[in-house]
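Researcher: Quick test of sequence recovery. Tokens follow.
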């Protein structure tokens, strides 16, 4: 297996190669990088990878790039296209439609049923039976720590060892519910709130807001390498996903109606109670048996849910166990197996 990736644009860009350190995986596959020049819209990168495909002639190309799938048609290369959003520019629409006229796109994978439905609604020429839904997944083993690092983690973050911790992991973009966490921290001063992740500018901005609100029971860690996340999950008492009705991503746009957050499955695999916003896209995976679902912007409901999860141990343990069992049936390995079952040469 070979991973083709773009070279970092600057000396300060993240290094690609220590994947085992960053993601907690065994780096057993080959990594090949090429420059991507924005002045030619990264066409040079696409052509470099395409040349390697021509030389090596793999059985299958699996890509999240619509342009890569489009180019595969011209070299008669079997491929599978995974979509995480709706193609909406004129050129992307053109490429997607042209793919349906040729036979080398085996099928399309979407990360949620909602995304598949919207894709068919906006692109009715697509065949429903050629689009398969496969939510994101999780590496169960990576989240299973052999030693208890709760005390050590709390100490390193200067959190009192007896404090209950409510944890959020992810970006701090608009719609992720960071404002809800601020309000909760203000209403529940005896509980410590921990926010892991976010780009430095976003972290600084949110810290300035919490400072203005005189919140002293909220800690921002900034970016944490993925392989270190298990110890933070272990230190937490509750995991929260306070997504709002409109959710932004790095490239802009609103993904609230079709998102499938990868952290959902990491949360579920952590064996900790989850509190999440009651949104249709999240309900494709979460429900009342494996989580507590609340109205996205109802702060009183959030406050009650947190207090209930910290005091109703029987309920909290039950939903955590159910979530873990659901996660065990949705590993990356099982996802790959299910996807390849749809593959036809």
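Model:
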């Amino acid at each position: 297996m070979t991973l083709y990736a773009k070279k970092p644009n600057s000396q300060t860009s993240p290094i690609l190669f220590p994947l085992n350190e960053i993601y907690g995986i065994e780096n057993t596959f080959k990594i090949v990088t090429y420059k991507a020049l924005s002045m030619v819209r990264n066409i040079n990168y696409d052509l470099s990878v395409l040349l390697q495909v021509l030389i090596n002639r793999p059985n299958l190309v699996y890509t999240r790039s619509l342009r890569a799938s489009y180019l595969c048609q011209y070299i008669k290369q079997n491929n599978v296209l995974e979509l995480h959003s709706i193609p909406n520019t004129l050129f992307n629409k053109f490429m997607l439609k042209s793919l349906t006229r040729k036979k080398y796109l085996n099928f399309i994978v979407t990360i949620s049923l909602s995304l598949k439905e919207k894709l068919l609604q906006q692109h009715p020429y697509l065949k429903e039976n050629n689009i398969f839904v496969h939510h994101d997944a999780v590496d169960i083993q990576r989240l299973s720590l052999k030693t208890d690092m709760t005390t050590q983690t709390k100490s390193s973050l200067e959190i009192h060892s007896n404090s209950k911790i409510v944890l959020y992991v992810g970006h701090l973009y608009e719609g992720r519910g960071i404002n809800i966490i601020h309000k909760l921290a203000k209403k529940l001063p005896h509980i410590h709130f921990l926010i892991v992740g976010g780009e430095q500018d976003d972290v600084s901005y949110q810290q300035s807001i919490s400072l203005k609100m005189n919140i002293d029971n909220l800690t921002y860690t900034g970016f944490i390498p993925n392989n270190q996340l298990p110890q933070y999950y272990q230190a937490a008492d509750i995991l929260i996903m306070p997504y709002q009705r409109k959710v932004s991503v790095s490239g802009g746009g609103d993904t609230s109606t079709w998102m499938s957050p990868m952290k959902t499955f990491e949360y579920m695999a952590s064996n900790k109670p989850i509190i999440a916003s009651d949104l249709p896209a999240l309900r494709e995976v979460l429900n009342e048996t494996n989580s507590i679902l609340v109205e996205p912007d109802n702060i009183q409901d959030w406050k009650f849910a947190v207090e209930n999860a910290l005091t109703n141990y029987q309920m909290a343990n039950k939903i955590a166990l159910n979530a873990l069992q659901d996660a065990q049936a949705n590993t990356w390995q099982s996802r790959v197996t299910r996807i390849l079952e749809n593959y036809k040469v």
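The mean pLDDT is 89.
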